[in-house]
Request: fold
Amino acid sequence: MTKLSKTKSRPKVNANKFIINEVHDIDGGSEFNLKSVARKLKANKNNEWTPLEGDGDFRSDECIELLKQANIVVTNPPFSLFREYMKQLFDYGKKFVVIGNMNAITYKEVFPKIKENQMWLGATSFNTGMYFKVPENFKYAATYKFERERDGEKVNRVPGVCWFTSLDHGRRHQPLPLMTTRENLRFSKHKEIKGKSKYDKYDNYDAIEVPFVDAIPSDHDGVMGVPVSFLDKYNPDQFEIIGYEKSYHLRTKIYPQQLQVDKNGKTSNVTKLNDGAAIKLRTQPTDMTFYKIANDFFVQPYKRIFIKHKTPAK
Reply:
């Protein structure tokens, strides 16, 4: 934990160490929360609060020695150092619950750990992000349009963040209810699925495109490309993660240079189709960015993870 001490120029950051030897419900009631912890820290002389010698950098020898003593690490590491921080946790074999940016899912240092079931997402909703309690004098941005109060507490919503953890939890083992291919094509609430004769297939990966998690067909035995939002519903007993769009060993084709045409008609020469899954179209689209090679047209869906059913699909 860090504390800002007042100076005449820039604030000086003092890192502090708290050792909690005794904490319990000091009110004698049924509620025990962070307020109880804070009050107990101040009231109980058995608890310790001392400054660190350094600045609290997780890479310092001082902090590494504290890490070695830990059984579980719960923290919000700097997003810019997330790769390095996660590597440290695995190097020292620590259980953890940490907050990170959702984009970290596809980091080359992170995704293999998720694929190998060494880490996964906590109880986080990709659609919501996370809410954090804030002080009463907190100022919202002019563009803030989310809830400002929950359970009587002032809160601020931060989209695009989630829990990463190596602690198992029950939600992770809840089966995802699915319809069959035929049912999805007939009854799906998504216009991109309903009414089609079949799912789109990638031109450069041996997999079908499933643009929505609730549209995963229960009876498809092959590989499926799904959005990264699948991971907050991922059940390792139900699915196997095969790879993601940058798992180039799964790629079946490499494209020559393409002409990229954005939705405003601006053109540029690129090789972006080789950076992810591509879908070949019969006709030129009019309302989205597309890529052209000779007389062929392609689009590229946003970040995909490749999965299969764990047991034969039914």
Observations:
- The first helix runs from residue 34 to 43.
- Residues 127 and 156 are 15 Å apart (CA to CA).
- The helical segments are 34-43, 61-69, 82-91, 111-115, 181-187.
- Residues 1-7 have pLDDT under 50 and may be disordered.
